[in-house]
Amino acid sequence: MESPTCPRLAAPSLPVTPRLSLLHCLLLVSSSVMPPDAADEWAMVERRGPHLWASDRPFVVHGFNTYWLMYFAADPATRHAVTAALAEAAGAGLNVCRTWAFNDGGHRALQTSPFSYDEEVFQALDFVISEARKQNIRLILSLCNNWEDYGGKPQYVRWGKEAGLELTSDDDFFSDPTVKSYYKAFVEAVLTRINTITNEAYKDDPTILAWELINEPRCPSDPSGDTLQAWIEEMASYVKSIDPVHLLEIGVEGFYGPSTPELLDVNPDDYSAKAGTDFIRNHRTPGIDLTSVHVYSDTWLPHSVEEHHLQFVKTWMQQHINDAANLLEMPILIGEFGVSLKDGKFGNEFRETFMETVYGIFLSSLNEGVIGGGCLVWQLFPECAEHMDDGYAVIFAKSPSTLNLLANHSKS
Length: 412
Known about the structure:
Layout: H1 22-29, E1 46-48, E2 51-54, E3 57-58, E4 60-65, H2 69-73, H3 80-91, E5 96-100, E6 111-113, E7 116-117, H4 119-134, E8 138-142, H5 152-162, H6 177-191, E9 208-212, H7 226-242, E10 247-249, H8 279-283, E11 291-295, H9 297-300, H10 306-328, E12 332-337, H11 348-367, E13 373-378, E14 380-381, E15 394-395, H12 400-410
Parallel strand pairs: 4-5, 4-13, 5-8, 8-9, 9-10, 11-12, 12-13, 14-15
Antiparallel strand pairs: 1-2, 2-3, 6-7
């Protein structure tokens, strides 16, 4: 169940196949760069305390979200947009993309039902990974959604009910043994997949920077946090039993919970402490390598006073950076952040100021040696996919100043 504190959905409803500007996309396809020649130039990204390293050099995430890559790659008519998105990002110096490695039920589903997967859609995910490698872009692959978009937690519970299970809430996803077996089977199928293009197992592919257990998990039916914590511990252990090499993150938004009552005032509202998540406790789970935080003051805070939003961002980010570095000794991923232009509440000028604030706070801590990780803007679209814009999309062809901002950040 989605709470009123977060009306922004993780993805819009599934679209019908769009008419793309193929000329634009094909021009971008032609700008592809070749993958690194030497294996040591494309080593696994690893964690060293609160910092990330690759090939014995510090690795900083200059990232973006484009959640629909696999979905578009599954249709030849829209596959061009995948290369277009990756090419534009690479051209701006971005090096990490967070995207969905799931689609549960519905149109172009990867998981058509429990234990059943569509080979053509899996080959679409193969394509996404292969194209990312060509563009020198690493991937953070999310394995499920808390929200109903692209199936997610609600679809798993529907499958359980169809199998005769007595489930009363979408939160049963986190506790029912049968439903958990559905998730585990899917995780195993993805992690052990042999890419039909590269002939490399996903679990061995350095193109993948990290796995994400679930996008924005919440379990408000148990505000103590015990239910979600038990699920995180079980699934982190399971993922690591299959793939002990890749980094792993949870995908939480960063709300403080009962384990740190002194930090509840940092949350955007009272509800956040009752969402069943707990930033410090969750990230002390064995097997979790990266802290994850999202930043959406435009939907979390009810007013539109810009200075208040920027002050919240500063407090929210600095507290999480301090805790990640000092209490958890982990890198931090600002996995999603952005400002919607959809309802006219804020304009592009404020969005860029907001983005500069997020980048500035992280880079300050990075340059001081406090912490590593990085930021991934929500979300980057090529012009040929702008019909998918949920209000947060940064379309480079229409936002040259934002493109300049991102490019400058990637050089920092």
